[in-house]
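Title: Prediction job returns without error message
Component: structure pipeline
Severity: low
Priority: P3
Assignee: unassigned

Description:
Job completed but the reporter wants confirmation the result is attached to the right record. Sequence as submitted:
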Amino acid sequence: MDRMNRMDRYKRRWQALQGKLSANHADGMIVTQNVDIYYLTGTTQVGYLFVPALGDPVFFVRRSITRALQESAVSVEPLGSPRLLVERLDKLYPQIGFKSQTPCLATEFDVIPVSNQQRLEKSLPRAQWVDGSIWLREVRMIKSQEEVDIIRRAARLIDLALEHAVNFVRPGMPEVELMAEIEHFLRVRGHLGIMRMRGYNQEIITGMVGAGEAAAMPTYFEGPAGGQGVSPAVPQSSGLRPIGREEPILVDIGCCIEGYVIDQTRTLVIGALSDSLERAYSVAEQILRDAEKSLRPGTICESLYVQACDTAEKAGLAQHFMGCGVDQVKFLGHGIGLEIDELPVLARGFKQPLEAGMTIAIEPKFTFPGVGVVGIENSYLITDEGFENLCISREGIIRVGG
């Protein structure tokens, strides 16, 4: 029964993609990215997954065929020579006409390297290629009950890790020591040790513990708080700076269980924060509470960001909202799932309405160069009636001992 349920789960996924392909007059899609392959097959091996608009998919595996045969919920064949791919596809899907027609094929233009795309074009010379990345990302955007249950597990583990951090932090300890303690706590309890991102050149560690001005250090990472990092080679997250008293400690951490991530931020302090930082944190919580009032199907994603910007402006904190100066990021939140930067995006220009089944992180933060970052982040499930807060950790500025 478990095997049948598993097969049905993946079948529902690739059938949803087939609906997108048919609606956009594509004959099929070749999926190459690890996360997308995992979502549609249940395995993360290297090769070409072909999903036809009609019919069953086939996964042509380069490595490891042994592992793929054990794990995949769709048919598996060894890839062999890419030069023979057109022959094999034409035999498996004669209705498409790989050798006699001009099939319209999609792939993930947003992530596939140019060299890989050129190899596909050489292997399938008659094909007309289109970008199918948005179709697959939209399918992945709506989570099943099984997916949400995994994210809930990650949220429970994050809560335990936060409470562990609260008891572990002490003045003078390096940020990276606290981060490593959190990572160890999570890792031995099931965290995969990886947080995947789709954005080009965007990388993320388990998260960030940043204290004082180090948390406010700008960097390439597309977020309101990147962190100093240990080296310019990875200029983000925790560094060697000692944690001090009466400065904000931003604990922005995730956890990846069975490939699915949770995203959560809390603000800690040894002692107490200044009145101005306390006020900024209160505004962050107000933005979150206001957003929650609108978290229901039909709400336009853009409106949540616009509302947040208005609140920050009225509080006199617009120049510090989601970063500072030229380093501000222009969003309030983002989808989560197998990647930390999934659809939808809560930002200007995103007219998409919220839908039941979406999982999103909302992260209002205020950045003060030379001082620190304060804020809060929760992850939510959009339901038919409204929302469920997936994060169960206590809120408010968390005062720790030491």
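Comment from assignee: result matches the submitted record. DSSP finds eleven helices and 17 strands in the chain.
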